[in-house]
TrEMBL record:
This is Mannitol-1-phosphate 5-dehydrogenase. It catalyses: D-mannitol 1-phosphate + NAD(+) = beta-D-fructose 6-phosphate + NADH + H(+). Gene3D superfamilies: N-(1-d-carboxylethyl)-l-norvaline Dehydrogenase, domain 2, NAD(P)-binding Rossmann-like Domain. InterPro entries: 6-PGluconate_DH-like_C_sf (IPR008927), 6PGD_dom2 (IPR013328), Mannitol_DH (IPR000669), Mannitol_DH/Oxidoreductase (IPR050988), Mannitol_DH_C (IPR013118), Mannitol_DH_CS (IPR023027), Mannitol_DH_N (IPR013131), NAD(P)-bd_dom_sf (IPR036291). Residues 13-233 form the Mannitol dehydrogenase N-terminal domain. GO terms for biological process: mannitol metabolic process. Keywords: NAD, Oxidoreductase. GO terms for molecular function: mannitol-1-phosphate 5-dehydrogenase activity. PANTHER family: MANNITOL DEHYDROGENASE 2-RELATED (PTHR43362:SF1), MANNITOL DEHYDROGENASE DSF1-RELATED (PTHR43362). Belongs to the mannitol dehydrogenase family. Its EC number is 1.1.1.17.
Amino acid sequence: MTPPPRSARHAVRVAHLGLGAFHRAHQAWYTQAANDAGGDWGIAAFTGRSPEAARVLAAQDAVYTLVERGADGDAARAVDALSRVHDGADGDAWRATIADPDVAVLTLTITEAGYRPGAGAPARVLDGLAARRTAGAGPLAVVSCDNLPSNGDVIREAVLALAAADAGLSDWIRTEVSFVSSMVDRITPATTDADREEVRRLTGWDDAAPVVTEPFTEWVLAGAFPAGRPDWEAGGARFVADIEPFERRKLWLLNAGHSLLAYHGLLRGRATVAEAVGDPALRDELELLWSEQRTELPFDDAVVDEALAALRDRFANGRIAHRLAQIGADGSQKLGPRILDPLRARLAGGRAPGVAQAGVLAAWARHLAGSAPADVNDAGAAGLAVRLRDARTDRDRAALVLDALAPDLTERTDLAGLIADRIASLQGAPA
Ligand SMILES: NC(=O)c1ccc[n+]([C@@H]2O[C@H](COP(=O)([O-])OP(=O)(O)OC[C@H]3O[C@@H](n4cnc5c(N)ncnc54)[C@H](O)[C@@H]3O)[C@@H](O)[C@H]2O)c1
Ligand SMILES: O=P(O)(O)OC[C@@H](O)[C@@H](O)[C@H](O)[C@H](O)CO
């Protein structure tokens, strides 16, 4: 039996691009909470690259099982907030959806790499917005839900850059489209066959597209919704004037910690976050990084202490198999916001570069240079990996890393020296 028949098919008023696991565990879950509280907001979700998720979900009427996996057990429920799913390559359906005057919000999970110059997603957003303008369908809110600081501004700039040749369209976007930034948090690994089997055991449902996530969830948003929005507060979302402190707290503690565990952990033969934090050497390295990055956060100690206490538990949840290889993908796009930004803040405050901060950069360099090309998933670092392999000294490797991630810091000889030392010390790390 597939998941149970939907309880309702809400009118489509939200569009989404990037139908991955995280959208289903996060934004769709908040929309479900809004609908459970009396709302009427259906989502039309489009895949970003492969059509597979749309194909599989369409076969079960877009209803799927969400499993909240705590340290002590699982809780499963059916989610029917997705009213329609589409292959993202279906440009007609995309334009028709964004041009629908009932659609008030477009959410995005297109990965950090999806915002790089030349990535297709901003052009698709622009294509949809142009159709909406032509249809006279009125204003829209575009909400970025990827792990990037000021993510709403990033997508806005990318879309406006592409629209620059069309003054009328650019003006319309500036006046009618609100780009909302959001901090999103819910650890959601890619779904595995074992997850599908567990859902069958728990519920009796033969669900080809369940999603397994942690109980913890957070969504903080800043920006206007000129055409309305779901009551996402029903799921605990918060709307704030200034998103930056919340983004920093999350990127500099959780995501930075994940990147540290990914690169150091892979070098030490660990496969998941929980395995990595079970390794005392990695736990010490993680605590050192947190001590280096927390000093730059605009929160009271008590707030940071509470966030870190929660993170220690969340990372140690061995029932969530969050693969380090997944987290380690696209380091060239992720390490800037996670490590370089807080490192710059330290230096601006007159402090020395952090030893663990340098260690993450060193472990990334070793990961790029020492892994088989097939084990490195980072299109933005392909050339760097070759140069790192060819480099003669660790000092040269440190310079290459800084040149790639932080050209503004290449003159910091103390930082380059620290990274080189850490690269050298990692060469002897046990596997
Ligand atoms: N999984 C998590 O724990 C988590 C938590 C917070 C934030 N996020 C954010 O959500 C993103 C997606 O995570 P996920 O777990 O759903 O991954 P996923 O691999 O399940 O899905 C990624 C989605 O992004 C799409 N995509 C990738 N590159 C794209 C591009 N260039 N243009 C358009 N779409 C593109 C894919 O087609 C897919 O639909 C992350 O990269 C991150 O920024 C994830
Ligand atoms: O999803 P990514 O690829 O941006 O980064 C991997 C993890 O650090 C990330 O997914 C976290 O699990 C997530 O940000 C938790 O909310």
